[in-house]
Amino acid sequence: MSVDTGTYSKGLEGIVADETTVSRIDGQKGKLYYRGYAIEDLAEHSDYEEVVYLLLYEDLPTGPELETWRKRMRASRTIPAQIQEMVRAFPASAHPMQLLQSASAYLSSYVEHRIQHSPTCNCRDTLHQVVQTASVVAAYLRFCENKDYVPPRMDLSHGANFLYMVRGTEPEDYEGRIMDTCLVLHAEHEFNASTFTARVVASTLSTCYCSISAAMGALFGPLHGGANERVMEMVEEIGTRERVGAWLDKAIAEKRKVMGMGHREYKVKDPRSFVMEQFLEELAEKKGDPRYYEILKEIEKQFRSRMEEKGKPIYPNVDFFSGAVYTMLGLPRIVFTPIFAMARVAGWLAHILEQRKDNRIYRPESLYKGPAPRPWIPIEKRGP
Ligand code: COA
């Protein structure tokens, strides 16, 4: 097949790879919708379990449907003893994203697969991927500190239960609510690199677990997950609100990127960052520690005005405030990307199901730039 070089776009920018009904980003207006529902409404009125239902079943549940769904999700929280052992045995020097990637594939062996050539796979029935990712991250943090595995609680929300499994004590109501809504905000974001990876693997009719495992690998890369870790490094480096101006002058002069700022899709402030900002303000007030909030607001104010003066406005993305929110919830930086993964696994599954519904294996073309056909050279004639 001859290649139409007119369709070539580095990084696939501007290429429409498939149709989707899962989510939509309106980058000009700063809007994000899951199945048509605005992220602000979901953050205010919904919770992670309901959003998982919405993503997988394409509509909000009725009261009885939600009740049944919650029971099913919560019943999946306990991780098998063998997975606990795997988490315990994982090398301390390895990153937990590598653990999640392996655990995803390993979890697959605990599920009876009905996936071969099935359009729906059995993701909706098992739910292990969505639910147990959080349990694996919590177990990882416990074992890192030589503490025991904490069995899940069935009466807490997904976010509150995660904090409970990490701490071993029940979080405050507001902490559980904030954690849960952070998962709502990260649950889905259209055709980004990890979601596209999940769809490509699903398009080969591989298992949903292998698709998720591959997506975890894509998310691990610093160009995708992990910007919030670097935001916190930046905040620590700056140290106080008074030092923001001088730090920014130097960063801009050195053409350094200000972490948590800018987005390929959003040309205005990321709608999720408004919610994260409110959470950080609430945590700062409740915990009596406004330092992170003050520094980040000062960076936002000064960076925006400097960039607007240059005629190049750049606004906060979701990662700008999220690292500080997690830090104030007592979570270490090493699990920031795994938290992203444990939320996004719902979106990945929704896309895997959509891919399977109307599947065609992904097989793009490449633009060959190598040597023209040439004769084989026997080894003795290839030089010393
Ligand atoms: N700090 C300083 N300058 C920035 C910037 C930032 N955070 N984000 C973009 N810019 C500038 C670039 O330097 C570039 O300037 P130029 O035209 O003078 O070269 C211009 O804005 C376009 O940036 P570019 O990196 O090409 O945009 P992109 O759409 O390819 O990339 C990001 C988007 C998110 C990768 C980019 O904004 C970035 O690296 N942000 C910081 C990391 C981050 O927060 N990532 C999380 C994303 S959710």
Largest sheet: number of strands, sense, barrel closure: 3 strands, antiparallel
Order of neighbouring strands in the sheet with most strands: 1-2-3
Poorly predicted ranges: none
Structural class: mainly alpha
Which word captures the global form? globular
List the ligand species.
Answer: coenzyme A
Question: What is Rg?
Answer: 22 Å
Distance between the termini: 39 Å
In round numbers, the mean pLDDT is: 92
* Element string (H = helix, E = strand): EEEHHHHHHHHHHHHHHHHH
- How many DSSP-defined strands? 3
Short précis:
The protein is an all-alpha fold.
Explain how this protein is built:
The chain is globular, with a radius of gyration of 22 Å. Strands 1-2-3 form a 3-stranded antiparallel sheet. With about 375 residues, it is mainly alpha-helical. It is built from 17 helices and 3 strands. About 45% of the residues are buried.
Short descriptors:
single chain, 384 residues, mainly alpha, 17 helices, 3 strands, 54% helix, globular, binds coenzyme A
Question: What layout of secondary structure does this protein have?
Answer:
Layout: E1 23-26, E2 31-34, E3 37-38, H1 39-45, H2 48-57, H3 63-75, H4 81-89, H5 96-107, H6 123-126, H7 128-144, H8 158-167, H9 173-186, H10 193-202, H11 208-220, H12 227-238, H13 244-253, H14 271-287, H15 291-309, H16 319-328, H17 336-357
Antiparallel strand pairs: 1-2, 2-3
Helix pairs in contact: 1-9, 2-17, 4-7, 5-7, 5-11, 7-8, 7-17, 8-9, 9-14, 9-17, 10-11, 10-17, 11-17, 12-16, 14-16
Bound molecules: coenzyme A (COA).
